[in-house]
Design goal:
heterodimer, A: 244 residues, Rossmann fold, two-stranded antiparallel ribbon, 39% helix, B: 491 residues, alpha+beta, Transferase(Phosphotransferase), domain 1, 3 domains, 6-stranded mixed β-sheet, two-stranded antiparallel sheet
């Protein structure tokens, strides 16, 4: 028996109270261009606090989920840095203005993932592959070449931390653009029916998103994280691999 | 048999919805809820479940009533087909109030993390790792589980997870186990010779026995991820031994105040070695000895290799009681512990498992909070370990902590040295306040007595005595003023 015990202590360092589950980062990229002003942005501002009350208020969910909110129009900004939602006091209110630069957003997401990953690692957190949730009501206003090159850097297979992307479009969003954004294997795009009212689409989408993040947390505890797509028609959960 | 017909039950608002069914309020019986099942499955087993507590003897029956939402009646259709259950609702004290004022069920997740986390996130104070209250909660759970196992047809809960085991420290450490309708009444273990085999819980043997004896087809019972028994293969039902694993896991996580991800390690490597933080205090010397019975029980409970020698809940009761008492814990409301079954004591003490090792480690001194590394990591707040102390102030402490206070940890464990000056001053303040209250009350009473006019002489004497006291006080005060002022005027 002593031999077994000795072998054990050599083979693996003891599990300590500091050891935690890997976390699952979600970046919500919200289009806040001019076309979102009025009812759509009001609907977004009404729904986003749900993130805090549903995910942040359940300690078991909050422990393994990290959420960052990025808005983009002419430029992209992290309005909520990647956070443990139980530690967030309020979700900032979003304001709509400007055009729709996908390039600015893809560049920003790339930079933020890179720096958040290193910050988390040095704080002792391991990561599952991050998920980027892109929500847009329009077409990119920047040159096609410009945003496509920014996208290809974000989805470059040799970049170890490339995120899985779920794209949701409504209003004037172009299905062809969204499917280009999510052309990589594991990614998915969803577009609302033509003419659907954003004021009804947005609450349904965000509520579904919250639900899918909550289910994803259970899969983290199961040891195999699953990116659970919102419960809208014809959707499938995508297996997500763990980063080194 | 306690049965209700659905049509005769007044059903209120929907409380919760799950995969299996929906839970409703009962406006006429606010302490009960109605769970309605979905689908046409055969639910004949519900009658057995509701009738099971009748088998219990007295201390165990009381333990079950006070710490489990055991279903009390079956609800049927007109034709008699069971469609749901009536069961008790968790008492209000098994909830916590977040800073936003909302009450939420007090799940184990508030306890299985650094106590700084719920304090910062929700304004909820929980006791530090290794606190008497934490041992008390595990003791309360061990008492309930040994009641489950105290009769010849025992029950296994099968999913003792964070959401199903609620806790409260309001009246001393108590637990309240919910979702008991997923429990299973196991086949009788008589004749007595069978007990060792069943308790041994060799998966196949138990499953075979269940099929042979159980009058109802086995239903699918799944364990919650992170709270599951790694000895049970995916797609298989938990066993009696799984509850024993859960007790060990809950002990480790609740006492250690961390979410030890042990199952992944056990599945991957087959072996497990865990370090449990032990704070300084009255029981530290005993607990830091790796041979303490509690570490040995925990190692046996978590074993995957020797599922058969996982300890029964009854085996935990005494060592937990001892440590709880050593730490100054208030103990749980019910003092009597169910006696373990006789055949158990007859067998020789099982040896330590070879696949699990539980090592006590002294809790390190709290680190000063460090600044966040960058703006982006605002996510992970710097968490300092609370100072370890065997404070028992917790067992009665209310769960609500005002936001942005440092919490009573520091108050309970502040060392005596270096604060003499402060403590003298605070003592003086307390005395002064007490004197002032007495002075006001004495004068009021005396004047009322004089005004009331009864026993005039006595009242007058009282007033005179107080007047004399006041003159003396004024004299002393004037003297002090004179002492302070005279050197100044003279100078």
């Amino acid at each position: 028996m002593t031999a077994t015990l000795k072998k054990m202590t050599v083979a693996d360092s003891p599990l300590s109270a500091q050891e935690r589950y890997s976390v699952f980062p979600f970046y919500i990229c919200m289009d806040v261009s001019e076309s979102m002003s009025g009812e759509p942005i009001t609907a977004v501002n009404k729904q986003l606090p749900l993130l805090r009350t549903s995910i942040g208020s359940d300690p078991a969910v909050a422990e393994v989920i990290r959420v960052g909110i990025i808005t983009f129009s002419d430029t992209a900004t992290s309005v909520l840095p990647l956070s443990d939602l139980s530690m967030v006091d309020a979700i900032p209110e979003l304001v709509a203005r400007g055009r729709t630069s996908y390039a600015a957003m893809f560049d920003h997401v790339f930079k933020v993932i890179e720096s958040d990953y290193h910050a988390s690692r040095s704080a002792g957190d391991r990561w599952y592959r991050p998920a980027v949730i892109l929500i847009s009501d329009g077409r990119p206003t920047d040159e096609s070449e410009r945003w496509r090159s920014a996208l290809s850097r974000l989805t470059e297979p040799s970049w170890k931390r490339r995120p899985n992307i779920l794209a949701f479009g409504f209003g004037d969003a172009d299905p062809a653009v969204l499917s280009a954004v999510t052309s990589a294997k594991a990614n998915r795009a969803f577009v609302a029916a033509e003419g659907a009212d954003p004021a009804t689409v947005i609450p349904e989408l965000l509520a579904g998103l919250v639900q899918s993040i909550v289910s994803s947390s259970a899969s983290v505890y199961d040891g195999q994280a699953l990116l659970e797509a919102p419960q809208l028609a014809s959707m499938r959960a995508i297996p997500v691999d763990e980063l080194d | 048999m306690q049965r209700f017909v659905l049509g005769e039950l007044r059903v209120g608002d929907l409380l919760a919805q799950g995969g299996e069914g929906a839970v409703y309020q009962l406006p006429l019986q606010p302490h009960l809820v109605f769970k309605a099942y979905r689908g046409d499955n055969d639910r004949g087993y519900l009658d057995d479940l509701v009738a099971w507590p009748d088998l219990l003897a007295e201390p165990e029956a009381e333990v079950l009533r006070s710490s489990a939402a055991w279903p009390t009646s079956v609800v049927t259709e007109e034709g008699g087909r069971p469609v749901g259950l009536v069961m008790p609702r968790a008492p209000r004290r098994f909830s916590v109030r977040h800073r936003d004022g909302q009450r939420r069920l007090a799940t184990l997740s508030y306890l299985t993390c650094d106590p700084a986390r719920p304090a910062k996130a929700y304004g909820i104070a929980v006791p530090p790792a290794g606190d008497a209250g934490r041992y008390g909660l595990v003791l309360a759970l061990a008492r309930l589980l040994s009641a489950f196992d105290s009769v010849e047809t025992p029950v296994s809960h099968g999913d003792l997870s964070t959401k199903n085991v609620l806790w409260s420290l309001e009246r001393g450490p108590e637990v309240y186990v919910i979702d008991c309708d997923s429990a299973e009444v196991l086949p009788s273990r008589a004749p007595p010779g069978c007990r060792v085999l069943l308790a041994g819980g060799a998966d196949a043997a138990e499953a075979d026995a269940a099929e042979a004896i159980a009058p109802h087809p086995p239903r699918r019972r799944a364990m919650t991820p992170n709270w599951d028994d790694p000895a049970v293969q995916k797609g298989h039902n938990p066993t009696m031994a799984s509850d024993r694993y859960s007790l060990g896991l809950i002990f480790l996580r609740v006492v250690g105040a961390a979410n030890f991800p042990v199952q992944a390690r056990q599945r991957r490597e087959g072996t497990l070695s865990v370090e449990v933080p032990v704070p300084g205090g009255p029981a530290a010397k005993q607990l830091l000895d790796g041979r303490h019975p509690l570490w040995e029980l925990c190692a046996r409970a978590l074993s995957v290799e020797a599922v058969g020698s996982r300890p029964t809940a009854a085996e935990w009761v005494e060592p937990l009681q001892e440590v709880s008492a050593l730490l100054g814990g208030a103990g749980t409301p019910s003092k009597r512990s169910p006696a373990p079954l006789a055949p158990l004591n007859a067998s020789p003490p099982p040896s330590r498992p070879t696949d699990v090792q539980v090592i006590p480690r002294p809790l390190r001194a709290p680190k000063p909070p460090t600044a966040n590394l960058s703006g982006a990591s605002g996510a992970s707040p710097a968490m300092s370990q609370p100072p370890g102390s065997g404070s028992n102030a917790w067992s009665k402490a209310s769960a609500a902590l005002p936001p942005a206070t440092q919490g009573p940890f520091s108050a309970a464990s502040r060392p005596g040295g270096g604060s003499d000056d402060r403590s003298l001053r605070s003592q003086a303040k307390v005395l002064w306040v007490a004197f002032w209250r007495w002075w006001v009350k004495a004068h009021q009473d005396a004047l009322f007595a004089l005004a009331a006019g009864r026993r005039k002489r006595r009242a007058a004497l009282r007033v005179l005595a107080l007047l004399a006291l006041d003159i003396v006080l004024v004299g002393v005060a004037a003297g002090i003023v004179a002492l302070v002022v005279s050197p100044i005027t003279r100078g």
